[in-house]
Design goal:
The chain is α+β, with helices and mostly antiparallel strands and 287 residues long. The chain contains ten helices and ten strands. Strands 1, 2, 3, 4, 5, 6, 7, 8, 9 and 10 form a ten-stranded mixed β-sheet that branches.
Length: 287
């Protein structure tokens, strides 16, 4: 899918949930070995990307609290430009809906959308494998968004095996605090030695048996997250995603999600979304 100079590509950058997250060890480099199940949501950010002929890459608007050199969209665009030796540039406008530091993968998804979108816009034609390699240089969660399928993740989350998960409705709640991922992974009380399991065992157990090993630590460090988890768990099965701060509840129907949202109104920021096994970005790009 190639945009014309007058018509930008309009590309989704979907949120993700960690339907389960186990920490099975700590590596010598300080990173943690994980086992997790990634699933996309039909809710997220949107990138509007227009080709430039002069090689400049411009992003609007600036993100509050994020320096330009740390912005994953700009870093992704410049990395692809350098690796492909492409002389084209781009104007990128980011519609930001996902909270920063929410555990929904917003920045990683934005970066993946920039990589795939600019690969198409500039006619670079890199494989998904190569784009995923570039994505991993930007962050551990970027490859799953590049590959675009619900997945079992191992390592730091970059070793991916496609899976098919149930696709219920979710209500996702933001407790109104920012969670520091380094603080969570650096906490002494964090569970780090959950026994490894196989994909088959994880899927056989089903959602009722899934958990997030970060949840107890985040509860202790961030009481507002604990408040949301306690309240939400009385209404539906609820869990932390990633290292938080967002918490999600699994619902049987959209009507149930709407009723829960009505209860939440005025307490916290929240949205409803459907679980997806295929990223809507890949549908738009025809990948």
């Amino acid at each position: 899918m190639i945009a014309t100079p007058a018509e930008p590509l309009v590309l989704p950058a979907p949120a993700k949930l960690n339907r389960m997250l186990h920490i099975i060890g700590r590596r010598p480099d300080g990173y943690h070995e994980l086992q997790t199940l990634f699933q996309f949501l039909d809710h997220g950010d949107t990138l509007h990307v227009r080709r430039r002929q002069d090689g400049d890459i411009r992003l609007t608007p600036a993100l509050a609290g994020v320096a330009e050199e740390e912005n994953l969209v700009l870093r992704a665009a410049r990395l692809l430009q350098a690796e492909s030796r492409c002389r084209l540039g781009a104007d990128i406008h980011l519609e930001k809906r996902l909270p920063l530091g929410g555990g929904l993968g917003g920045g990683s998804s934005d970066a993946a959308t920039a990589l795939l979108g600019l690969d198409a816009l500039w006619g670079v034609g890199l494989s998904l494998d190569r784009l995923a390699e570039l994505g991993l240089r930007l962050g551990a969660d970027v490859p799953v968004f590049v590959r675009g399928h619900a997945a079992w993740g191992e390592g730091v989350g970059e070793r991916l095996t496609p899976v098919e998960l149930d696709t219920p409705w979710f209500v996702v709640v933001h407790p109104g605090v920012a969670v520091s991922t380094p603080a969570v992974f650096g906490a002494g009380e964090l569970t780090r030695h959950t026994p490894p399991i196989t994909i088959a065992r994880a899927l056989q157990g089903g959602a009722s048996g899934w958990r997030n090993d970060c949840e107890a630590t985040v509860r202790a460090l961030y009481p507002p997250v604990a408040d949301v988890l306690d309240w939400l768990s009385t209404r539906a099965p609820a869990m932390l995603t990633g290292t938080g701060a967002c918490v999600f509840a699994r619902l049987a129907s959209e009507a149930d999600a709407d009723r829960l949202l009505a209860e939440i109104a005025g307490r916290w920021q929240a949205f409803k979304a459907r679980g997806l096994n295929r990223s809507p970005l890949h549908d738009v790009l025809g990948r």
